[in-house]
Design a protein that fits this description.
Blueprint: H1 2-10, H2 12-25, H3 42-46, E1 100-103, H4 120-130, E2 134-136, H5 149-168, H6 177-189, H7 191-214, E3 220-235, E4 250-261, E5 267-276, E6 310-321, E7 324-332, H8 334-337, H9 361-364, E8 375-383, E9 388-395, E10 413-422, E11 428-439, E12 469-483, E13 486-499, E14 503-517, E15 525-539, E16 558-568, E17 572-581, E18 593-603
Antiparallel strand pairs: 1-2, 3-4, 3-18, 4-5, 5-6, 6-7, 7-8, 8-9, 9-10, 10-11, 11-12, 12-13, 13-14, 14-15, 15-16, 16-17, 17-18
Helix pairs in contact: 2-5, 5-7
């Protein structure tokens, strides 16, 4: 490098070649080596790229949570505008970038070049003798930008081609002997870089041709996930039959394929196909434990036969305005689709593309997010400045059913509104959520109940036969990244149930979680959560949900969960975990239940 610096300082013609590089490299009409400009805007660079498809299986939040410098936990400390929610190429412009204005005939035409500049004479010589100076449309030259040796090598090669062109057109009188000697020395000095650059370009062309020949689609990305789960009840009774639950270990699996397509770089069409045979513990009253408490989050659909490929989600997402994201889905969940729970509980519920972390459904979501099943609807996320976001969602779990008391607007629905505030350094966030939901009498949803959060006690998931049910839900959630290796999150939720024509009930839940990113190993994650799953805390004397008129849950059941997510490379992770439920079904007469869950996740 010392010889290079000596030449750079002492050979004015080398300085001239630097400027030739700046002009020739970035304008195809003047150069054979085209490199990106160091000061080009992202939109100008991306204008040459094909639209990229969305890679997330579920929507990510516009402002990711803070973490250490590892991308494996799906969290960063950077501010992400709403326009990046889709993870597609930024909007492109049909206007040409602010490039060359045309041939400059006099150096005085360049407003940022003054006669007192040390390179003025060199630039003047290049204009008058070689005619290779071209300015920008704003009348500037921008000659003070840094460049690498590889860029210089490419520029030197372009300059040689220009000189050969002058010689070939019988303009040899314009080329001085000392200039040719200097160029020859430079060519010899940079010959390794030029050879390496040519080799890299040849390799890149070969790889590009191979990718084009074998690519799945120019606009669609295929994302695959496969899970193998080893699980077993270790202790506990069935709360309905009052008999010990079987302690039989099982080995089960689930696979999902996600197709993400972008048509213009600013939208996304997502289609999910999945199938498997994972039986969730705590799935329904008919399950091993006879309660929804401790329900594991990894499970196959309970409404379809096991090992049957089903369509699990269809949604179209686009940006009508830079700070507005609209999701229209024929089959999905509004709260999940808009990512309203993700930013508040990031270490326990990450995107589906990377795999959620928590073992149980309760550890991932507050009560207010769990009343809706999959179905059609619309969700909107609106940025209100850099630190506030407003989310709105409407879902109809039975919106695809045209029969009586069903449909998009006359059947079961869930309307959600949420306001999120982020601190300026993005290490703290808090969200206030309101949900209004309604279920007509005698209708059944995907969770096996026509109303309720599908987690928690049996009473909180029960309704009165022949009566419609209305719920008004309120939630407050918060997250704080104490340092890169420790974060805390928590929530408290309240639900007011009205059994139309019969009476009222009240339900609550709360939880506090601790997350330990990079625990014992870079990219790993440890976490523990303690909380009270949804329970019925009061009930009108005229309402009987199965335990007797006016009888709410007797006791408090605690949910204690711990897991450790261990990464094996970038695409495999193993997550063992334990779930301990005290006083199951909020009844102290039931012995505690304990079960283990080991999830192995493969991404491809």
């Amino acid at each position: 490098m010392s010889n290079f610096r000596w030449n750079y300082r002492c050979l004015m013609f080398l300085l001239s070649l630097l400027d030739i590089l700046i002009i020739l490299v970035f304008y195809p009409a003047k150069s054979q080596a085209e490199l990106p400009k160091s000061d080009a805007s992202p939109a100008q660079i991306e204008v040459k790229k094909a639209p990229e498809a969305v890679v997330n299986q579920t929507v990510e939040t516009s402002i990711a949570p803070l973490s250490s410098k590892k991308a494996t936990n799906n969290v960063t400390g950077q501010v992400t505008p709403v326009s990046q929610l889709l993870e597609v190429a930024p909007p492109t412009s049909k206007k040409a970038p602010n490039n060359v204005a045309g041939q400059v005939t006099s150096v005085s035409q360049l407003s940022d070049i003054k006669p007192t500049d040390w390179a003025f004479q060199a630039l003047q010589s290049l204009v008058e003798r070689y005619g290779v100076i071209t300015g920008y449309t704003d009348g500037t030259f921008k000659g003070n930008r840094p460049l690498t040796r590889y860029e210089f090598a490419a520029g030197l090669n372009a300059a040689l081609n220009r000189l050969n062109e002058l010689i070939a057109t019988s303009t040899t009188d314009l080329v001085k002997r000392e200039d040719l000697d200097t160029i020859k020395k430079l060519q010899e000095q940079f010959s390794p870089e030029l050879a390496q650059l040519r080799g890299r370009l040849d390799t890149l062309e070969t790889r590009s041709a191979k990718l084009e020949a074998t690519q799945f689609s120019t606009t669609t990305k295929l994302i695959g996930r496969a899970q193998i789960v080893l699980g077993s009840v270790l202790a506990g009774n069935n709360v309905v039959t009052k008999t010990p639950a079987p302690h039989n270990p099982t080995l089960q699996g689930l696979t999902s394929l996600r197709l993400n397509t972008s048509f213009n770089g600013k939208d996304s069409l997502g289609i999910t196909l999945s199938g498997g045979n994972i039986e969730s513990l705590g799935q329904t009253r008919a399950g091993l434990l006879g309660t929804y408490e401790g329900r594991t989050a990894d499970n196959a659909s309970i409404t379809f036969a096991r090992n049957q490929i089903i369509l699990g989600g269809v949604r179209y997402r686009f940006l009508p305005y830079p700070n507005t994201q609209v999701n229209i889905y024929a089959l999905s969940d509004g709260a999940s689709e808009i990512g309203l729970s993700g930013p508040i509980n990031p270490y326990f519920e990450s995107s589906s593309a990377t795999g959620a972390n928590g073992i149980s459904r309760f550890s991932r979501r507050s009560l207010v997010y769990n009343y809706g099943d999959s179905g059609p609807g619309i969700a909107i996320l609106q940025g209100l400045g850099k630190q506030v976001q407003l989310g709105l969602a409407y879902s109809a779990p039975n919106g695809n059913n045209p029969t009586l008391n069903n449909g998009l607007f006359t059947g079961r629905y869930l309307a959600l509104a949420q306001l999120i505030y982020y601190s300026s350094n993005r290490n703290f966030r808090v969200a206030a959520t309101y949900v209004n939901t309604y279920s007509p009498a005698n209708t059944i949803g995907f969770s096996g109940t026509n109303f309720g959060p599908a987690v928690g006690s049996n009473l909180v998931n029960s309704t009165v036969a022949g009566a419609g049910t209305v719920g008004n839900l309120y939630g407050l959630q918060a997250f704080y990244q104490i340092n890169p290796k420790l974060a805390i999150n928590g929530w408290v939720s309240y639900a007011a149930h009205r059994y139309l024509g019969r009476g009222d009930g009240e339900a609550m839940d709360w939880a506090v979680g601790l997350a330990f990113p990079d625990l014992f190993q870079e990219g790993a994650l440890g976490a523990v959560l303690v909380g009270m799953e949804p329970k019925m805390i009061s009930l009108s004397k005229s309402v009987d949900l199965g335990a007797g008129a006016g009888q709410a849950d007797k006791d408090t059941s605690l949910h204690i969960e711990a897991f450790y997510q261990y990464k094996i490379g970038d695409n495999i992770e193993i997550t063992p975990g334990l779930i301990w439920i005290t006083a199951p079904d909020s009844n102290a007469s039931n012995p505690d239940s304990l079960f283990a869950w080991v999830r192995t996740l493969f991404r491809f």
